[in-house]
Design a protein that fits this description.
This protein has about 500 residues and is of the alpha+beta class. The protein has one domain: Cytochrome P450 (Cytochrome p450). It is built from 18 helices and twelve strands. The strands form four sheets. It has a five-stranded mixed β-sheet. The protein has a three-stranded antiparallel β-sheet with strand order 4-12-9. A two-stranded antiparallel sheet has the order 6-7. A hairpin with a 2-residue loop joins strand 1 and strand 2. The N and C termini lie far apart (about 95 Å). Belongs to the cytochrome P450 family. It comes from Glycine soja (Wild soybean). Its main location: membrane.
Length: about 500
């Protein structure tokens, strides 16, 4: 009897060991599927790839990426590469369905962003499907250069910024006054509504509450799917985002149709907004189709309110967390008011340009938050960087978070400290708006919008956060999970 029990026990151990061995073999096979699909085909070039981990078949490293960014430590994703493979600055991986190289140092990031001969935009197909095949993120260098030249004048340059300053200031003042009388609000939600109203005026000359609410609601769903896994099944973020894109396209198409109908029989004078400019656009190349116009507008309106809304909220948040910086920023704004002629009613562009410390606050917020954690490029040919090969057709992920939170560049990198901008930084060390020919065309407008808001907030208001220790969510963008719930209070101050 005892012998039988011993034999049964032994066989059970044999079976368990066999199962464990089979699982290890299966794991090894699965971990090598991506090598067989992508690396083995490179021949001898595979031996000059950067170190890294291609992850699981087809999924690659997406689970670990999403897990890290849904945790309290999003930077653990890159830290795992550094701890396993060293500080090489380049790591092979499988992300968003493509074999990829992640780059994490200023020098390499700068090269990838500025070398248009070797690299082209390489956004995932799922992102292109959401933002638009005719938007800037997927068009050729020549077409992008042409349309950027024809559209950027509407949002950058002294004339455009001066034109929008009065409108921005009027809406900032009225919004702050309104919020102070609303009781408890989601501060981030209200700021996003404000920035969306401003960008709608600039691009569509529209202040229709109905249209704005419909568009803003769909944009929220769209953005939740941009960095989600491409699973177009009901219940998943990407599926909701894809439906949101269809709704956005329908709304924009109705606006385009209306504008085109107004043009029947006559050609209007000077374009009043970007939609008019795009419809009337005609140069040596060609006129834009409805699809071109809709994708460009969809892209611009999204980029034009998401980043400025979030950064405005975080800049306000950080200043209130650091009274010494708040007082310094407020003193600067009070000095601007003191120097102002008594006949002057509002801000001038010259005064905005003189907000030296406030712009350091904005830059520091852009660095700490890093609104866009990564941009995508694709190698047009085999490229050698620091002895490693980036194969033709592979994606290159320019990982801004690694640059902005590098302790060797920015000591105590997660500490908010505007004074670190008292010195100049090298090219590539600060990339909040990207770089090279694809640099965000609305960067000056966004920073001016944030500065105008902070100017009036610092002089006249304070914010009482309901839950100062609210957990933070990092996807699709860094934000408090309660959208910064609290109250805006008016306080005795200098009148603007």
């Amino acid at each position: 009897m005892i012998m039988m029990m011993m034999m049964c026990s032994m066989w059970m151990w044999v079976v368990l060991v066999a199962i464990a061995g089979a699982l290890l073999v299966l794991r090894s096979i699965l971990k090598n599927v991506n090598w067989w699909l992508y690396e083995s085909k490179l021949g001898v070039k595979q031996y000059s790839l950067p170190p890294g981990d291609m992850g699981w078949p087809f999924i690659g490293n997406m689970w670990s990426f999403l897990s890290a960014f849904k945790s309290k430590d999003p930077d653990s994703f890159i830290s795992s590469f550094v701890s396993r493979f060293g500080r090489t600055g380049m790591y092979k991986t499988m992300m968003f369905g493509n074999p990829s190289i992640i780059v994490t140092t200023p020098e390499i990031c700068k090269r990838v962003l500025t070398d248009d001969d070797k690299f082209t935009p390489g956004w995932p197909q799922s992102t292109i499907e959401l933002i638009g095949k005719r938007s800037f993120i997927s068009m050729s260098y020549e077409e992008h250069k042409r349309l950027r030249r024809l559209t950027s004048s509407s949002i950058n340059g002294m004339e455009a910024l001066s034109l929008y300053l009065t409108y921005i200031e009027k809406n900032v003042k009225s919004s702050l006054e309104k919020w102070a009388n609303m009781g408890q609000i989601e501060f981030l939600t209200e700021i996003r509504k404000l920035t969306f109203k401003i960008i709608m005026h600039i691009f569509l000359s529209s202040e229709s509450e109905h249209v704005m609410e419909a568009l803003e609601r769909e944009y929220t769903a769209l953005n939740h799917g941009v960095r989600a896994m491409c699973i177009n099944i009901p219940g998943f973020a990407y599926h909701k985002a894809f439906k949101a894109r269809k709704n956005l396209v329908a709304i924009f198409q109705s606006i385009v149709d209306e504008r085109r109908n107004l043009r029947k029989g006559y050609l209007p004078g000077k374009a009043k907004d970007m939609m008019d400019a795009l419809i009337d656009l005609e140069d040596d190349e060609r006129k834009l189709s409805d699809e071109d116009i809709i994708d460009i507008m969809l892209m611009y309106l999204n980029a034009g309110h998401e980043s400025s809304g979030h950064i405005t909220m975080w800049a306000t948040f950080f200043l209130q967390k650091h009274p010494e910086y708040l007082q310094k920023a407020k003193a600067e704004q009070e000095e601007i008011i003191r120097r102002r002629p008594s006949t002057q009613k509002g801000l001038t562009l010259k005064e905005v340009r003189e907000m030296d410390f406030l712009y350091k606050v904005i830059d520091e917020t852009l660095r700490v938050i890093t609104f866009s954690l990564v941009v995508f490029r694709e190698a047009k040919t085999d490229v050698n960087i620091n002895g490693y090969t980036v194969p033709k057709g592979w994606k290159v992920l320019v990982w801004f978070r690694s640059v902005h939170l590098d302790p060797e560049i920015f000591p105590d990198p997660k500490e908010f400290n505007p004074n670190r901008w008292n010195k100049e930084h090298k090219a590539g060390e600060f990339l909040p708006f990207g770089g090279g020919s694809r640099l965000c065309p609305g960067n000056d407008l966004a920073k001016m919008e944030i500065a105008v808001f902070l100017h009036h907030f610092l002089l006249n208001y304070r914010f009482e956060q309901h839950n100062p220790n609210c957990p933070v969510r990092y996807l699709p963008h860094t934000r408090p999970m309660d959208n910064c719930l609290g109250r805006v209070r008016k306080c005795p101050s200098t009148t603007t």
